[in-house]
Amino acid sequence: MSEVKPFDMVIFGGNGDLAMRKLIPALYHRHQDGALCAEGRIIAASRHDISRDDYVANAREACRTYVGEAFSDTVWAAFAERLDYIRVDATREADFLPLAELLGAYPERTRVFYLSTGPALFTGICHHLGAAGLATENARVVLEKPLGHDLDSAEHINREVARVFTEHQIYRIDHYLGKEAVQNLIALRFGNALFEPLWNRSSIRDVQITLAEQVGVEGRGSFYEGTGALRDMVQNHLLQLLCIIAMEPPTSINPDAVRDEKLKVLRALHPLTGRSAIENSVRGQYKAGAIEGTSVPGYLEEDGVAPDSTTETFVALKTEIDTWRWAGVPFYLRTGKRMQERVAEVVVNFREVPHSIFSESSMPMPNRLVITLQPDEGVELYLMAKAPGDDMQLRPVALNLDFAQTFTTRKADAYERLLMDCLRGKLTLFMRRDEVDAAWRWIEPILDAWEQHGDRPKTYTAGTWGPAASSALVGRGGYCWHEEA
Ligand code: BG6
């Protein structure tokens, strides 16, 4: 693993929720592991008029909460030495001059500007960084999602950021790509000779990708109102997972080799427009129900949500990939809040045996590969085996790979990996501009179709697997969702 060179990391929105919940604890962990070089500063920037001491005290509390048992006062004392705070109103160019002065002390260091702010501030911050002479060759900028609200706004951000930084300096985060389990998908596909000959339309019947959450909108009602599940989860996380499942083998793990292949998948997604978008999608919105025995309110009762809101908290889609490898294979994508279980999984259903030699009561079931990403990481391959006894009765049995049992090392959070990759200058797990663009080009017609057809979300009770129409969508193809099998 390449060494981390001396760095100054400036976190805009440094006092905000993401910084406190994820970024600072991630950096703390990496400091504790000895992965950060001694000459590494973390400078939180925000518009709040607080002192460095106050900031450090806030950050300490956040680390105590989110690092949990691994938190240590001694480690904290050394980590806190790295922390600094500077008041910057991101909309005021003049506020960037003191920042330039602070960074000017170490002009040769790697500079990372992490924009953990709303996307409305991205272009302004980049311009001000440029004007303050901070967009130097050794600078990198990290953009958090959501990267815009639609194709136009995403293109606007990308265009404006590109006026200041070149593409190899821009790190667009999709935190799903930093998850250990998602990288394991790459290992599974390209580190084993077993799957590749079967990984195509001849052997695979359908693919299902589910990102189900038990949480609701977690106090972010007003943000979520203007977003919805398609923009929040499908445009980025789900499509990125789909790319990794469906892409051709890249020639290497280099950033552009991988990103070129992902882009081809995004561009080959069968367009869902007009009526076909309506027929191949299901929108849902949760109503009050119970999650593991605890009552929870419906979406319309959440703070910041309009009483007649039509924002979807669930979406299921059927799509295809128009390539020789995948033509005709349905890909079912689904995500939702307040679902029965928290699970992120990819299910690959293989085709049936071409001819069964067994009796009708013992027909072999198609093989199934279940790759679970969350909450526990594992791979199960269902094979048919003979049940003990005199009769030839077949039963599906899982070959089970449990990563928690196999690897006992601490499981790093996605942000740890992504922050370290950024410090090391590794772009493979970050989205390139054309990927973001292609994803929006596919998503936008679905949003348009919903609007034009006045498609209202179907309600589902919190704590279930979504509206009945979701099962019907998969049922039309003659299939069912994994949990219904
Ligand atoms: C975020 C979405 O990108 O991902 C949230 O904005 C969602 O709405 C979250 O809850 C899910 O991430 P994870 O890592 O908890 O699966």
From TrEMBL:
Catalytic activity: D-glucose 6-phosphate + NADP(+) = 6-phospho-D-glucono-1,5-lactone + NADPH + H(+)
Keywords, alphabetical: Carbohydrate metabolism, Glucose metabolism, NADP, Oxidoreductase
Active-site positions on this chain: H237 (proton acceptor)
Domain of life the protein comes from: Bacteria
Binding site for NADP(+): R47, K145
GO cellular component entries: cytosol
Domain Glucose-6-phosphate dehydrogenase NAD-binding: 10-184
One Gene Ontology term from the biological process aspect of the record: glucose metabolic process
Protein name according to UniProt: Glucose-6-phosphate 1-dehydrogenase
Binding site for substrate: H175, K179, E213, D232, K337
PANTHER family for this protein: GLUCOSE-6-PHOSPHATE 1-DEHYDROGENASE (PTHR23429:SF0), GLUCOSE-6-PHOSPHATE 1-DEHYDROGENASE G6PD (PTHR23429)
